[in-house]
Amino acid sequence: MDSRMATRVILVLTLFTGLCGANLKGNIALHARAVQSSLGHPQGNAKHAVDGNREADYGKGSCTHTKTEFNPWWRADLGNVYSVYKVAITNRIDCCRERLRGAQIRIGNNLGNNGNNNELVATVDSVFAGTKMFEFKPVKGRYVNIVLPGNDKVLTLCEVEVFAEADKPQYICVPSECSLLLCMLSVTQIFDNQSLPNRTIKKK
């Protein structure tokens, strides 16, 4: 391969690698392994925040509940490391919605301090009922923590949904209307200033 061809191939790789990268579809925390700092009520199990049910009336049995304690927390294990860019939290609607104010979303791979020292990506700074989305710069991590700093706090979550970007593929990705050969020819035209053959590109 001569230097000109090598340059063309490098340019093609630069132009097209990663064009097929996208966001993973759906909630990757669904049915993830979940734990919390304590169980404050028989039906307030940690798994209820990842059961796929946004029911926000605590009495209907789909929310978590810790004891009243110092720095209560909840954690989901995603099973793999993902580039997380959004977390949705569903808060209670029946009562006590103000309890969630000040809660922190933390993401990372470290289980020191139960994962509560991982990177802080968002804070619940206002009272809301129902579901609220928190978007942030993508952070890589396996564990998603919700921690509520302070004394005499109760943490209740009715659903936690996690959304991540797909990793960029390791192969070359080209637009569907352009074969790799024709794209190479296009790059050749850039370098050689020659006209492409008169041929129609058929979309598949």
UniProtKB/TrEMBL annotation:
Gene3D superfamilies attached to this UniProt entry: Galactose-binding domain-like
Coiled-coil regions, chain positions: none
Keywords: Calcium, Disulfide bond, Lectin, Metal-binding, Signal
InterPro entries, sorted: BG_Antigen-Binding_Lectin, FTP1, Galactose-bd-like_sf
The keyword Protein transport is assigned to this record: no
Pfam families registered for this protein in UniProt: F5_F8_type_C_2
SUPFAM superfamilies for the chain: Galactose-binding domain-like
A molecular function GO annotation: fucose binding
Domain Fucolectin tachylectin-4 pentraxin-1: 25-167
Keyword Disulfide bond: yes
Stretch forming the signal peptide: 1-22
Gene Ontology BP annotations: regulation of cellular defense response; regulation of complement activation, lectin pathway
Residues spanning the membrane: none
Sequence similarity: Belongs to the fucolectin family.
Protein function: Acts as a defensive agent. Recognizes blood group fucosylated oligosaccharides including A, B, H and Lewis B-type antigens. Does not recognize Lewis A antigen and has low affinity for monovalent haptens.
Subunit structure and binding partners: Homotrimer.
Name the UniProt record assigns to this protein: Fucolectin tachylectin-4 pentraxin-1 domain-containing protein
